[in-house]
TrEMBL record:
It comes from the Bacteria. This is Uncharacterized protein.
Amino acid sequence: MKDSEPVIVQLYCRFEVAVEDLNAVLNHAAQGLRDAEIDWSNESNTLDEAVKEMKSDLAESVASLVDFDRVLGELPGLEVRRGRYWAEAGPPSERFQPGFGVPQ
């Protein structure tokens, strides 16, 4: 490996969160959508429709609040290039259980 080549590492995360103030979470997610620099003329719905949809789906709202740059962006020598994250209501999914070794 050359010094100028980055080492690629996969980081898998799962968080369990308890939503104690549903309206606060939904409103914060909707505000994030409003503040996003989205060209709504290129989208299939309007900003108002997207906000209404966001506020009707708690899991989508929670997932929209994940910001990799806030989690890891302050670390020198590390660039978050992409990621996948999601939220699902209910108990942990059998598809993604921690503590069973490194995925192959």
